[in-house]
Every structure is written in structure tokens, then in C-alpha cells.
Design brief:
By secondary structure, the chain is α+β, with helices and mostly antiparallel strands. The chain has one domain. The protein contains 6 helices and 4 strands. Strand 3 and strand 4 form a beta hairpin.
Length: 157
């Protein structure tokens, strides 16, 4: 029993040590003028947290630990459904309302020394055929996922 406990403790310690030593991917998201205006006037600033999470998730899934930092610029974006702010600003608007979404995004990947090691861009707008099954940021999320895969392909190794 003592050996089993000691082995489990050692395995746990090694897991924490390897996780603590790995530097997490740093992701910076900025917005182009058009996207920033839409966020402020139409969608609401609180949507930035949702978009940030989508960007980070897509990049981590596609890049893993191959890069140290990624700087992303969202030039434009369009939601598929009304955001919280839009619903508050327009009382007659319904969450059942839907439209074509998408995004225009670009980014650069850097290694730990700060050298640029890849760049990519992607611009996509969804199709109305699928819009009725979409959540608020479905097409933007898809755009970010494809962008992340394109960036991963541009990074050597």
C-alpha cells in the first residue's frame, strides 16, 4: 500500500512539474477599426471575452506548444444571432432572429526568442442555409478555427 501511494505521489509530482515548466501560449487579440466599432456600438464590449476565448481555444488546439506567442487582429466580424446588447437596445428583437455571420482575421506567430515564424489570414462569411442552427458566434468561431489551422500550417515543424 505504501509503495502504491509513493508511486502515485511521484507521478502526481512529475505531472505538476512538467505542467509548471511549460510556458503557456500567449495570445493577444486586437480589433481593426471596423470590428472595434461593431463591438462598441452593436454587439457590446462583453462579447470580447467570448471572442478571446474562441481565439485562444482555436490556436491552442491547432498550434499546441509549437509557438510562444500569437498576435491576432480581427479586422471585421458579424454575429449570427443577436447579442445581449442588441437584445437590450432593440426590445422587439428575438434570439430566434438569425443571419449570416463570419469574420476577417489575420495573425502572426512568434517563437520564444520573439522571432516571427509564421503568419496567416482568413476571411469567411457563412451561408444562410446553416444560419438557423447557429449560435451567436458560430460563423466567427468557424472562421477562427480555419484561421488557426492555416497559421499552424505556416509554422515550421
Amino acid at each position: 500500500m505504501v509503495k502504491l501511494f509513493s508511486a502515485a505521489a511521484l507521478l502526481l509530482a512529475m505531472t505538476f512539474a512538467s505542467t509548471a515548466s511549460a510556458d503557456p501560449l500567449q495570445v493577444t487579440v486586437t480589433y481593426g477599426e471596423k470590428a472595434q466599432k461593431k463591438i462598441e456600438k452593436t454587439y457590446g464590449v462583453r462579447e470580447k471575452a467570448v471572442i478571446q476565448e474562441m481565439v485562444e481555444r482555436s490556436l491552442r488546439e491547432s498550434l499546441g506548444d509549437r509557438v510562444a506567442r500569437v498576435d491576432v487582429v480581427i479586422h471585421d466580424l458579424t454575429a449570427n444571432r443577436p447579442t445581449f446588447k442588441e437584445l437590450g437596445d432593440k426590445p422587439g428583437l428575438s434570439m430566434q432572429s438569425f443571419g449570416i455571420g463570419g469574420a476577417d482575421v489575420s495573425g502572426k506567430a512568434f517563437d520564444a526568442a520573439g522571432n516571427q515564424i509564421g503568419q496567416a489570414s482568413y476571411d469567411w462569411t457563412g451561408d444562410i442555409i446553416w444560419a438557423d442552427t447557429a449560435w451567436i458566434w458560430s460563423d466567427t468561431d468557424r472562421t477562427l478555427s480555419v484561421f488557426a489551422r492555416k497559421l499552424a500550417q505556416a509554422v515550421p515543424g
